[in-house]
Recover the amino acids of this structure.
C-alpha cells in the first residue's frame, strides 16, 4: 500500500482537458499575432510612402513638362523665286520693285494646340523705312507640330523719300546687294489638356540679303 501511495505522489494525474499547457502557450501565441500585425502595418506604411513619392515625382514631371507652356518658334524658312525690276540712276534717284514667295513657319512644341491671332510681316530697308507688308490670317498649330504658310511678297522703293536712304539705295544697287529686315509679332493662346489656356507670344526678326545681279537670295538669317 505504501508503494502505491508513493507512486501516485511521484506521478500526479494530468488535467483531463490539458488546460495548463494551453494557458502556458497562450501568451506566446498572442505575442506572435501582435508581431505579425505590427510587421504588416510597417509594410503597409512603406508601400504608402513609396506610392506617395512616386505620385509626387509624376506630378512634378507633369507640371514641369506637360503643363508648362513655351513660346512658339516663328521664322521665315525660305524665299524663292525672286523677280526684280531695278533702276540704278547714279545721277538721280534709284528704285526697285521686287516680288517673291516666302515660306513662314510657326512651330509649336507644347503638349496642346496653339491658336494664334492675325499678324502682319513688315519689310524695311535702310534702317527702318517700310517697303512692304504682308498679312497672316489667324490660325491654329497642333500640339507638337508645325505650320508652314506660303506668302506672296511685294516690295517697292516708292515709299522711300528720305534723301540719305535714297543715297544708300544707289550705293547698294551699285554694289549688287539689297538688305532687308522683316519683323512681326505673333500672339495667341496654348490650350493645355483642354482645361487650361495660357497666353504666349513670339517675335519674328529676319535679315534678308538679295543679290540683285543674280536675282537670287544671298542669305537669310533669323534670330
Amino acid at each position: 500500500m505504501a508503494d502505491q501511495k508513493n507512486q501516485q505522489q511521484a506521478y500526479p494525474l494530468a488535467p483531463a482537458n490539458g488546460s495548463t499547457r494551453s494557458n502556458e502557450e497562450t501568451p506566446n501565441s498572442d505575442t506572435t499575432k501582435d508581431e505579425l500585425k505590427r510587421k504588416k502595418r510597417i509594410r503597409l506604411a512603406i508601400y504608402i510612402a513609396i506610392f506617395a513619392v512616386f505620385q509626387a515625382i509624376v506630378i512634378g514631371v507633369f507640371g514641369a513638362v506637360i503643363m508648362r507652356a513655351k513660346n512658339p518658334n516663328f521664322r521665315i524658312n525660305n524665299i524663292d523665286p525672286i523677280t526684280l525690276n531695278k533702276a540704278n540712276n547714279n545721277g538721280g534717284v534709284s528704285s526697285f520693285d521686287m516680288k517673291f514667295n516666302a515660306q513662314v513657319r510657326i512651330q509649336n512644341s507644347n503638349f496642346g494646340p496653339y491658336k494664334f491671332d492675325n499678324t502682319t510681316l513688315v519689310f524695311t530697308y535702310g534702317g527702318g523705312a517700310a517697303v512692304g507688308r504682308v498679312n497672316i490670317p489667324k490660325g491654329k498649330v497642333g500640339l507638337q507640330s508645325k505650320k508652314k504658310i506660303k506668302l506672296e511678297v511685294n516690295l517697292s522703293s516708292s515709299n522711300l523719300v528720305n534723301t540719305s536712304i535714297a543715297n544708300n539705295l544707289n550705293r547698294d544697287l551699285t554694289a549688287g546687294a539689297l538688305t532687308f529686315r522683316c519683323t512681326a509679332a505673333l500672339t495667341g493662346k496654348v490650350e493645355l489638356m483642354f482645361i487650361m489656356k495660357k497666353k504666349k507670344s513670339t517675335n519674328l526678326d529676319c535679315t534678308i540679303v538679295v543679290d540683285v545681279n543674280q536675282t537670287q537670295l544671298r542669305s537669310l538669317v533669323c534670330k
